[in-house]
Predict the structure.
Amino acid sequence: MEELTTTEKRLLAEVQALRGELDRLRDRVAAADRRTEDQLCVSEERFRVIFESALDAIFIKDLNLRYILVNPAMEKQWGRPASELIGLTDKDFFGEEVGEEIMRSDRLVLEGRILEKEHTKPIYDRLFTFHVIKVPLRDADGRIIGLCGIARDISQLKETMEALRQSEKKARALLDATPHGMMLIDTWGKVLEVNQTIARTLEGKGGDMVGESAESLMVSQVSQGRRARAIEVIETGQPVRFQDRHLGMVFDNYYTPIFDDQGQVFQIALFFRDITNRVRAEEALRQSEVTARALLNSIPQGMLLLDTHGTILALNETAARALKGRISDLVGQCVLDIVSPHMLGSREERMREVIVSGKSIHFRDEIGHRVFDNHYTPIFDQHGNVVQVAVYASDISARVQAEAEILSYQEGLRRMGASISMAEERERRRLALHLHDKIGQALAISKIKLKTVMKAAPDLDQVHQIEEVYHLVDEMIQETRSLTSELSPPVLYELGLAAALEWLADILRDKYDFICKVVDRSQSEEADGDVRVLLFRSIHELLLNVIKHAGVTEAEVAVQNDGSLLKIIVRDKGTGFVASKSGADKGPVKTFGLFSIRERLESIGGRVEIQSRPNQGTRVTLVAPVKTRAPQSPPTQGLHSGPLI
């Protein structure tokens, strides 16, 4: 081999050096390739993990907008395996119209745009809303080879947000509808929110208030007090409630803190309520209660309010004095533990009766020598259940004693009246007998003697004069007989009551052209003389009332027996009247009115029953014992009842 030149040697050395450097570079490239492959594997593994574990749906489409890759989240979201999704387009899933709309927007991505929007799509008969981000997919040379998309199902979020909007809308409507003012402020006093009540109060400037200082909206005196309360809420973290007044109006205020995530007060909700009318009503109610209490305490009747167990809920001073205690001490005690043992049984039983029956009761009872008039009245709740009992009790001992004395006086007067009536009747009888036996006989003898003298008179003129006197005496005899019958009808004593009524019917027919039908159904012994007289006079008075006031020309009188009682029924078909409970007569009477008849009959153990209605006639029943004693009280003065007719 020929020896190398120096130049060649140098070039050969450089070539060998370059070859060594090239080998070293080749080794570094191989190592770099290995590292790149390792990093690519790691990256691909990371992508696979992210792709498969992502909660959002991830998909890749080719240039024909066919799905070529989908992750498990999309399989779950769409309810289909990847095998049923790969190779299909959106038209295959959503139909021609919706699918074309999606593909039209996808073509914009294939042009290099990034697309972010929401889609609402029907999947299995249900609408889903997705938030979708789509970006173009490029190869190593930067050429677009498809698109990659991420879709998040925000249906539940949408529903939650819509529910929240509706809730906020309702809350706003409620806040605006409430008559109470509401304001939200921060800890610096700046207004954050107000409701319509505040806005109306400030003449529609509610929206302009947001951002302003709450203090600037209030009068200085009111502002200072409310500012101090707001500071108290911030410092203590506790709500406060207070009242204040302004221009004659009363406000009820409630300040409550609102906390942030760290538990610090960062806002305050202020509620204002105009309670002027309520305060005035409460004051009026208090005044009314004071007045009612004064009235209750001023009456002499004891009043208590009890629950169903007998616990005293309220009482007046009269009741407190009767129970020997003070009102404040007695309220809350059981009345059954306080009352006298003598009263306990009857009062407890009566109270139980009211609670069970739900009806008021009225009764009297005697404790020792005292008499009490009691009213127990139930008080019901809204369901109709007895929850309380109102008790009214009065000590009526003095009244009962006075009533007894009055009844005694009335009975004495009744006996006295009956005695006077009987004495008057006896005097009538005596006068009638005197007229008949003395004056009547004297007139009869005078008439006989005048007739004898008239026959013996020699002169015709004397005969005429004696004849005139004779006729005058005859008239006097007739008047005497009539007066005798009017004073005391002999037929009443000689033939009895029924015959006397027949005689009375004849008199009424002749004098008043009035027809009185007498029906005698009596079959027992005749009544005592005093009873006959009293009944006869009463019937006579009743018939005169019929003639004067009933507007009819006939009536009926029936006489019948009912055991030891004699019953007389006087019936007419006249105008009638409204019969009162007392039986007092309804028209003017002469002497024996219905009241007088009642009094005299009751004095001998009888009674009067009246049945009458306007335009339906009247029926008066007189009931008297057959046998009776004359009243014992002597007459104090004569009573003149006038002539019989």
The longest strand covers residues 126-138. The chain has four domains: 54-159, 178-280, 300-394, 415-625. Confidence is low (pLDDT under 50) at residues 581-592, 630-645.
